[in-house]
């Protein structure tokens, strides 16, 4: 299987690809993002967008859903076969089912139209933050939870029954903060602030969705989890593996 195109780095302003079949929308986004110091490139359909990604390596993609020929969902599905560049979906559809579908395909965020430029800018900053590694890491690069599960913090992977499974940036950050507080319940709002950013304080469904994604990757039985436990009405708790390892109750 071919390796994925990495994220590009090294610019103060970011290279942002805007994919939309509405020239007015692209023009408005370009004007505002360039004022913030970003460089903007554009594509007007999904096929063109995939070609641009391969040649220009943008730092982030703003991807419209409703496009002719190849819609945003299908474009994202094809993109995730070779690239982990962060993607924010832009769409006139704001129903939860569409949001969930986009996130399941690998989107990093989802903004329904119409939206304000201040909100878009805030979301872009938050998504770019999540693609960076935390400032601190656990004492060991590879952390052994038990005989079945280990976490490789350098590679952002979990190792389940000796099989390496790649984590998306948001999944990695969520797992990082849960493991960092193992044995303690982390409230929903704290997870939102730490992983997504303060601007996501009203988006509690993101935590639930990504906990489910993590459970699908690390739990033997996701419907009966043993690692990521739910404290109803409060938040989530990662099992206190250190005490278990030491033989304490």
Ordered list of secondary-structure elements with their pairings:
Layout: E1 15-19, H1 23-35, E2 39-43, H2 46-56, E3 60-64, H3 72-79, E4 87-91, H4 96-105, E5 109-112, H5 117-130, E6 142-144, E7 149-152, E8 157-160, E9 163-166, H6 169-180, E10 185-187, H7 188-196, H8 204-218, E11 228-231, E12 235-238, H9 241-246
Parallel strand pairs: 1-2, 1-3, 3-4, 4-5
Antiparallel strand pairs: 6-7, 7-8, 8-9, 10-12, 11-12
Brief characterization of the structure:
This protein is α/β, with parallel strands linked by helices and 249 residues long.
Molecular structure report:
The protein folds into 2 domains: 15-130, 3-Layer(aba) Sandwich (Rossmann fold); 142-246, Arc Repressor Mutant, subunit A (Orthogonal Bundle). The chain has 9 helices and 12 strands. It has helices at 23-35, 46-56, 72-79, 96-105, 117-130, 169-180, 188-196, 204-218, 241-246, and strands at 15-19, 39-43, 60-64, 87-91, 109-112, 142-144, 149-152, 157-160, 163-166, 185-187, 228-231, 235-238. The longest helix has 15 residues, at 204-218.
Strand content: 15-25%
Q: With helices defined by DSSP (H or I, 4 residues minimum), what is the helix count?
A: 9
- Spatial strand sequence of the major β-sheet: 2-1-3-4-5
Q: How far do the termini sit from each other?
A: 44 Å
Average the pLDDT over all residues and give the rounded result: 86
Under CATH, the homologous superfamily of the largest domain reads Response regulator
Q: What does the overall shape look like?
A: elongated
Number of separate domains: 2
SS-based class: alpha/beta
CATH topology-level fold name of the largest domain? Rossmann fold
The gyration radius over C-alpha positions equals: 19 Å
Give the ordered list of helices and strands.
EHEHEHEHEHEEEEHEHHEEH
List low-confidence stretches.
5-11, 245-249
Strand tally is 12
From the structure provided, what is the oligomeric state, counting identical versus distinct chains? single chain
- Classified by CATH, the class of the largest domain is Alpha Beta
Percent of residues in helices: 25-40%
What is the level-2 CATH architecture name of the largest domain? 3-Layer(aba) Sandwich
Q: How would a crystallographer describe the biggest sheet?
A: 5 strands, parallel
